[in-house]
Amino acid sequence: MVEAVRDAFGHALVELARENPDIVALDADLASSTRMIYFAEAIPERFFQMGIAEQNMMGVAAGMALMGKIPFVGTFAVFASRRACDQVAISVGHCRANVKIVGAYPGLVSGNNGATHQAMEDMAIMRAIPHMMVVDPADDVEMAQAVRAIAAYQGPVYLRATRDAWPRVSPQGYRFELGKAVRVREGGDITLVGSGMMTSQCLEAAELLAAEGIAARVLHVATVKPIDVDAIVQAAEETGALVTAENHSIYGGLGSAVAEVLVEHAPAPMARIGIRDCYGECGTNEALLAKYGLSPVHIAEAAHQVLQRN
After folding, report:
1. Residues 98 and 153 in one domain
2. What's the half-sphere exposure (Cβ side, CA atoms, 13 Å) at 71?
3. Residue 154, burial from CB neighbour count under 10 angstroms (0-12, 13-18, 19+)
4. Residue 284 gets which letter from DSSP?
5. pTM greater than 0.85 (yes/no)
6. Does one domain contain both 49 and 151?
7. Per residue in 31-55, pLDDT tens?
8. Pair 51, 24: CB distance under 8 Å
């Protein structure tokens, strides 16, 4: 059974914390939404309710990290990236504090919460902070493994945690590795590059293209920073064209990271699917992806346009 990504996060964190007494959890009055509530119920002595005070929470987490703890800090992605940006940059990033920041409900798919709670630029902000790793898991399997991987990694990490269950894209026997992209579908005509839940949309787009005789490779990039340069260069050299798809603004996220790799190492035509310089609104996941151009149909259309250019 496919589990909601946030539930996979909450369960994995509890399991890991039972093994490692240094793991602590800090919450900004959103534990039921982020699923840190599982930690609060299972290990209350290591759960710290910080209230709606995200900036202070980041400073406290940095202090705990500098004393040897491994803090997981949970709040909505908009608050982790925008409201607490200065504390993340200075207390966490500048100190290289071993803090794991969990940004819940990122991008358009924010549980019908609307524009104020849709983090369109969180990856762009976090990518720009020195020493910060950025991870965007695709499904429940990858999220559970990513929690363990980032806990073992020494340094600050920003982990995106979507609210709902998405089609499972992790291959059988998948082993998540920080900094490594994974090819989840073969194809030689074009590469569709996805991060987070958009990789499942890329796979659906690849099916649409296959019906037209176009063989699309799908490359899943869970670690947006540092990005897997070799995998992207290989895709550019072998397929000659790329489309990126992200649950994020087209500025500063996955599309920008891939474009940076291409312009420096392997120039190739590409298109970016993402939120195009606007705010969102309330709606179901399906309606929002369709309205804002992030659906499989839009990805397939972008692939056609890039192939024509190529």
Report:
1. yes
2. 26
3. exposed
4. -
5. yes
6. yes
7. 999 999 999 999 999 999 999 999 9
8. no
